[in-house]
Amino acid sequence: MVGVTEVSSAKIVSKVVWSQDYLSYRFSDSHPMNPIRLDLTMRLAEALNVCESRDMALIEPFVASDEELAAVHIPEYIAAVHRGAENPSEEIPEFGLGSEDNPLFPAIHDSAALIAGGSIAAAREIIAGTAQHVVNFAGGLHHAAVAKASGFCIYNDAALAIQELLDHGFERVLYIDVDAHHGDGTEQIFWNDPRVMTISLHESGVSLFPGTGFANETGGPDALGTAVNIAVPSRTSDAGWLRAFHSIVPQITEQFEPQVIVSQHGCDAHAHDDLTNLRLSVDAQRQNMLDIAELAKRFSNDRWIATGGGGYNVIEVVPRAWTHLMAIAGGQPIPLRTEVPASYREYVLETYGVEAPEFMSDGAELWWRSWEVGYDPSDPIDRTIMATRKEIFPLYGLDPWFD
């Protein structure tokens, strides 16, 4: 049995990328990707005095230029997004635009490019050495591909941040994705680039969009072993999720020796998120944030860019999860039994007619079995772990008997 790990309270320089203009990324009034989640996250963080009490400076995002977006996306696709903004009733299926998931709207380019600019700005803070940790919780749009919108994602801001780091001399960037959905867009963008390792822990594609991310998807011919996929079964809960993470991610991170970690913290794996089939608590999601913060401290000279991602329970889950993320990035995690401020709860009730949670915790009892206690072939989580370890570990001299 393993307990909760906290990060050191040593002072670190952390920043948060934020603008009210992020709320313009809104596909429609009924679309699941509702920017209310961003507004409520910042309101909760302010109610808890997260940034001020940790000296976390707020930095403004900028609208990424077409040239900056072209570091990852082809010009024809960027032009199609512009065209869709001008003609939102149009469908552009060859680029994934105008679909039910990715409907067009007048601000589609500018709002998506603003989120992209936010993650590029985060990368530039790391490059300049003006911050160790930077959070862009509006980002994490990990399904966007080189030439196609997908899964509510137009421009892949995390990939753009990674490319910015590479273009400025970083040679090993680790991307860790703990969204319920496979981080397929980011993985494919760097599929054959040995400088980037993508690790995605997600619900199996057997039961969830986008239907990819299996253990045998391990990278291109020039980058074999740099795509790591951990596809847990439907209904996985805290203990199985954390066992899977700790049985693979720290070991591979140590072998890859990243200079920077970029992470995606979609919180749609929560039990009360209607778009997935997982059963996590906010407590477990917070633990994943602590774990990744600790990996950055141990292996990447404490350089860490954290983004948001999926998350569709906009009242109960998202604001608490990403407020925890900001606090952890600021070096002072919020204790789990912290009460949600009354002023915030009153605002949510008056504005949306819904009761917000009373505490920053779901009251979960976090524990997980370490891999060292043994493998149970009848356990579907253990079979998931074993499948990934068999594919990846021998490539790094780990578990060589699988080779």
TrEMBL record:
MF terms in GO: histone deacetylase activity
- Could you state one GO biological process linked to this protein? epigenetic regulation of gene expression
Tagged with keyword Cell membrane: no
Q: Which InterPro entries match?
A: AcuC, HDACs, His_deacetylse_dom, His_deacetylse_dom_sf, Ureohydrolase_dom_sf
Where are the bilayer-spanning segments?
none
Span of domain Histone deacetylase: 31-327
The pathway to which it is assigned is: Ketone degradation; acetoin degradation
The UniProt similarity line reads: Belongs to the histone deacetylase family.
Q: What name is this protein filed under?
A: Acetoin utilization protein AcuC
